[in-house]
Amino acid sequence: MQRRSVLKNLAMTIGGLVSLPAWASGWTPDSLGSISTLSVDNETLLADIVDTFIPETTTPGAKSLNVHKFAMRMINDCYGEAAQTTLLQGLALADTTAQQTYNKPFSAGDATQRMDVLTKVSASADPTGKAFVDMVKKLTIQGYMNSEYYLVNVEKFNMAPGFYHGCVPVPKLAVNGSK
Amino acid sequence: MSFLTIDSVKDRTFDAIVVGSGISGGWAAKELTGKGLRTLVLERGRDVKHITDYPTTMMQPWEFAHLGQLSKEYIDANPVASRCYANREDATHFFVKDAEHPYVQEKPFDWIRGYHVGGKSLMWARGTQRWSDYDFDGPARDGFAVDWPIRYADIAPWYSYVEKFAGISGNKDGLSTLPDGEFLPPHEQSCVEKHFTDQMAKRYNGTRPVIIGRCAHLTKPQPIHYQQGRTQCQNRSLCQRGCPYGGYFSSNSSTLPWAAKTGKMTLRPDSVVHSIIYDEKLGKASGVRVVDAHTKEMTEYYAKIIFLNAACLNTNLVLLNSKSSRFPNGLGNDNGLLGKYVAFHNFRTTISAEHEGFQDTTTEGIRPNGSYIPRFRNVAKQETDFLRGYAAGFGSSRATSVDTSAMGEDLKTSLMQPKYGNWRVSSHMMGETIPKESNYVALDSALTDAWGVPQLKISVGYDDNDEKMIADFHEQMTEMLTVSGFTNIKTHDKPDKAPGLDIHEMGGVRMGRDPKTSMLNKWNQLHTCKNVFVTDGACMTSTSTQNPSLTFMAITARAADHAVKEMKKGLL
After folding, report:
1. Which of A36, B312, B539, B562 has the least C-beta neighbours within 10 A?
2. All structural domains of chain B
3. For residue range B354-377, what is the model confidence (pLDDT) as tens digits?
4. Nearest CA distance, A94 vs chain B (angstrom)
5. CB A15 to CB B367 under 8 A?
6. What is the ipTM of this complex?
7. pTM above 0.95, yes or no
């Protein structure tokens, strides 16, 4: 609702020239729609894989932020057919590797076992394994770091009002290695 | 047309017609209506109302399905449009689709177009640097094209005039190469940009200044801007979506609403101008032929004067297609020069570097602008084996990175703790290209578009002068960065990057002193059809190195002033 009040203020500031458009009150955070390009089982498996990369702790993990849906959509819409094939083959490889190593499906493993499976998939003789792990890990990190949760709480993203300062001190902590 | 009544002709008759509603068309509309002329503004594309028709403008980054990236389907269907840096997931609705508006590339040319009210003024990069006499003198001194019929003194008051209304931020730098204007407060340079500025001043004795760019952002709005319904730029840097604050200048936020307020403007979107009507008896233009974008029906509109502001290449197209028995080769084209001597800005290469110092500093927030290096090559005299020179944009940021090697909780922890890397800088070249007869546009003899208008054939390419300039940019910038303590210096020339992506195409209907060697006089009137004015990029005799839009605005306001004075004297 914050931006609606910004727009209202703007409309008041500058008088009659500005009309409030319909979309100013017409959106919801879910307005992206849903997409599933995978079977239910595969979607669950992908969700467990992204959550293995970035697990739920005291803060949300990749699964609860729906990063797997973001990854599916990117692979489907932006990456092309080869990547879609890599995704399907990689998911199958993750489950067969889990079965071979721990005698259970990937999703039934604990965090340590799942990480071990993904490490093994990445090192597998089949080059699809590494391509799959690299692609999904990259998308997991990208999706997580561009999620509403991360941008608002970690990056403190605020669309407006903005500002620019060209030369500010870096906090001491950051000089020693972290922001 | 057979059912037209006299009244209908009267309804379709105006004092002035403006073809195009982009940066220069918007200015023509504002100036002509402001001087009391009933003005018809024709726009080939759909209407885009300020704020209401900016559907993505307030969307948060996470509301986009693809983080701003274009889909593969879109890229495959629109190879040209998708190459434009500003065409992102939040702005595709402002770029024409390749298949809907075909053209013929005799040589590769990425023609970036915005067909809607406001044109490319919605998606432009907003750099607004004045020309100086070093630029207007160029063709005469260096012996190319023809002499400009105007000089800086002719245009300077008009720069001031448009700057005050549009709202231009900048610093008064006192440079002869880049005259100061009517500035709102400047954006700030970063620590490393300031360092580069200082080093250049010391090491090149003030001959290679680095300044903060001048740009069309309201850093401190004035009463004239509030009157337009615009307010403070919010530093969002989401300009390609259209700005609900009117924080940057566009036709939609500024000139068109201003013209509308006079009650004298009729804005007609979805109106594809086919050609200008030449009246043989009167010896001047009497109106334009318009094809309705949806019904494809042709209608004529009439006026005493016509401003052609269709954007550079489309202005060429309209004139080429305006054939009559008096002008069988296109309106005003007795000398055969129409469509020739098209030039652009060479944006093919960039250079990047790092600085290992200033580790305890960074920037905060977002700046919709960058630093700027005015042309320093061949300024006072010829000093290289190529003609003219280049300006350059210069930007910097403190890089941050995260360690992504781990998995699980360790990865999550490291993502929460981005580490600062070195300062990174990059600079892009904006090279002057030399207008040549062999760089031209023409009508295709067979192909037409969906509105029955011949397709434009574009034959514009780089030449040896451009290649030498790229090499010099690499050499000089490498030296400048090296002496300023930068490391990891890398050049990034993209020889396959076609002209056009600069979106600075100019010429084809050049100004000049002599009707034998130019198309337009010093007031932007066609030499041989004086009630037709061309004041967009097509009028440019040479390109110099500055972002050209500010000059189009000033030239338009100046020409409109002259047009109305001449009309009042009964001369048009």
Report:
1. A36
2. 1-170+248-342+505-572 (3.50.50.60)
3. 999 999 999 999 999 999 999 999
4. 16
5. no
6. 0.90
7. no
